[in-house]
Amino acid sequence: MSSQDHPVSSFKDIIKSSWPYALAVAIIGFISLWIRTCPSATVFLSDGSVRFTANDAWFHMRTLRVLLENYPHRMFFDPMTNYPNGSYIHFGPLFDQMMAITSLILGMGHPSSHLVDTVGAYFPAVLGALTVIPVYYIGKYLGGHKTGVLAAILIALAPGQFLTRSLVGFTDHHVAESLFSTLFMMFFMLALISAKEKNLRFEDVFNKKFTVLKEPFLYSVLAGVMYSAYQLSWPGGSLFLLIVLVYAVFQYIFDNFRNESSDYLGFTGVVTCLVSTILILPFVHPDMGFSLYYYSWFHVVTALGTMVGFAVLSLIEREFKRKKMKTYYYPLIILGAGILGLIFIKILSPSFYSLIINAPSTVFGIQHGGPSTIGEASSTFYDDGVFTMSKAYEYFTPTGFFASLLGMFILAANLFRKPKTQEVLLLIWSLLILFAIYGQNRFAYYYSINVSILSAYLGGLLLEKVKWSELDQKFKSNVKSPADIPRALKFVKVEQVFAVLLIVIFLIYPVYGSAMAYTKISNGTPSPWVEACDWLRSNTPDPGMDYNAIYEAPKNGEMFQYPDTAYGVMSWWDFGHYIETIGHRMPNANPFQAGIGGRRVSINETNQPGAATFFTAPSEEEATAVLKAIDPRPDKMGARYVIADAYMATVMFEAMPAWTLDTDGYYQAYWTGSQYQSIPSTRYFNSMEAKLYIFDGNSLKHYRMVYETDTHQSNEVGYKQVYNYFYGGKLSETDTGYVKIFEYVKGANITGTASPNETVKISTTILTDKGRTFEYTHRTYAVKMPKT
Questions:
Q1: 3-class SS of residue 761
Q2: What are the pLDDT digits (tens) for 115-160?
Q3: From-to residues of CATH 3.40.50 in the chain
Q4: Global pTM?
Q5: What would be the CATH architecture of the domain defined by 597-744?
Q6: Where is the Oligosaccharyl transferase STT3 N-terminal domain (predicted)?
Q7: C-alpha angle 783/784/788, rounded to 5°?
């Protein structure tokens, strides 16, 4: 009898395999780590500094340093971002705590700043490499060691978002989500297999049959611990509770149609969810109510609700069998119970009911308006409303993606036979994550796990066809030392060699080639932004805040009390973490999508003040009004400095009006002789972003450029060429500083005499810190003054 027929025999079987497979997994893990550290030269710079990748990575390093400064207390509210409101931090605490503990151990209680940066940079690579282990075991309990090893190889080499988010320097919690969610599914699967193998009944609990309960109980507790770790890495972790609950409904139905007991399923679910509830409860912020994005009562209630769901489904099943009802009534009873449960929740807590109803569209639905411009929130399969497979091919390779679909098809076909519990779980898990990447491509780093396991499952089936198990047994019987290997090669058959070649060519080689290409991608933090934020930190007034202090959040309805010296820095939300973490200044908007302003549902809404409203403002007066409206205090401006860059002014600009839901007229179609090309229009050149970046603030009364960085590759020249050709401009068609910093000033009144209605022009040559000169010009009309 093969290992997959009776896959769980003792606890040692999960933590210790035979030495060849343990060695293979260890080697695969080290290869995975090596791949993830290949871009180290772009992270650890020659001057000794560490350049983290992407904006959230920088903010995680900020929260890590605050944690170490105040250990063990963590920052949950940050007043130094989203000025003048501050932001609650929705990041889970576990990722930072793991890095902090590692830093404290390695630094003997007093880690240096460079050690902390080094730990932070390598941490995602280590967690990504560790993911090989649970993927191996899931594969093993689906199709034996061969499937497990192949799954481990595929996830070690998996390209796309799973690789990018586990590369050195990408210090974000996403890789922790992947690791802990996979560990959760592994232990949950093992608990199910063990409980079913031991024919566990609820009577065993009442009769205290510990020999039956011990192993399933231990795996269920570990599943609960790993789910809690996943949830404490990301508040949105309730997604995997939905997965196991949907799986449970199908598994109960299948067991009922086969007249089998589902007590093993109820026991596993109840214990897992109870442990999860206990571990998550201490992290709940009661003042958050029922929030999906922060640790609130929502997370406790969903864990408890899932536990109750398992208990109710088990109770229904036992009563159903006791009364010997017809099997096809069972799904209808479950449906009725679900509807009654929702009605009960709606009566008891309408806000919680609303969250439950809207959560699926939040996860699985395609975003519209401003949220659709968030890179990780856009659909994997739709780009500007057009269906495309390009992202799926990029993230998983074409063979990997279609192998996953074929694997699910085979698992679905097995439902008509007698599928193993682990096969049903994998099918439901994979289908729901596939639906999730339809809505948001951020979940692609989850689906890489499923693609690796499903592809390995296919590979395992192929090896079974060529009798790989027989070859495995012959090798075990005849190979006692490495010297025996050459003689044992005579047992290898041609079809087995051919099967291995097919797996290498179609499954392994494509992901390897794609993965190595990903390791050559340059660091995601633009150097000009580091330069600009360094200047900001050294050359602008200190806002008067204790950068590493932990501040209490204001009570509901109240504003945080900033010192009089505090001020904001206006820029697009993507760059808020750079401004705060590198520049030590307070951005008005940040990558939590706070401070953007604009509209969310309808063009008929009031256009709220924020970054989108400011940069799309059609005049300086309207832009200044936005800055004044951001801070409700009448004597304060929302921002003292404004930062614009070439990316904001060109490629990124279309995202700005998308948040206001007023997108028409910024670009127009122009026939080039062979095709239509979209070019910026008058409305674009009248926007505040264009006035600041393209025109260097020329003619503006209250915004003066105080710094520009070195040039960087961009589309700036093309935009200037359009302005000169179509609108009679005389802009110098050269690249200027990639990032430009402007200061809001009151301006000055210059008086003189001129004839009534005469155009008065004032010009001066501005010399930037980079040695570039441009002409500042302001025009006005002479007004006839009344006689005194």
A1: strand
A2: 999 999 999 999 999 999 999 999 999 999 999 999 999 999 999 9
A3: 597-744
A4: 0.91
A5: 3-Layer(aba) Sandwich (3.40)
A6: 47-464
A7: 130
